[in-house]
Design a protein that fits this description.
Length: 78
């Protein structure tokens, strides 16, 4: 994934889930914090080893996963 070098996957860390820079901080944790109203500054206050770019890339990764393509089904022949 281009421009997402901070998102890492390692089967020995958090069961291979998407993490930030090999740390035990998952992308899903960051997304939950943002979804519950925390700002980047507040997140960094609770997790001082995170950088603003870590949070930005977690959001970019989520956007990548959520990118939807609609493929309408053709009606079945009668």
């Amino acid at each position: 994934m281009k421009d997402l070098e901070r998102i890492t996957f390692n089967p020995r860390i958090m069961g291979g889930r998407a993490c930030i820079r090999g740390m035990r901080i998952t992308v899903s944790l960051i997304l939950n914090l943002v979804a519950n109203g925390m700002s980047a500054n507040e997140i960094q206050g609770d997790y001082p080893y995170l950088e603003e770019e870590d949070i930005r890339q977690a959001l970019k990764y989520a956007a990548f996963l959520a990118d939807e393509s609609v493929h309408p089904l053709e009606p079945a022949p009668a």
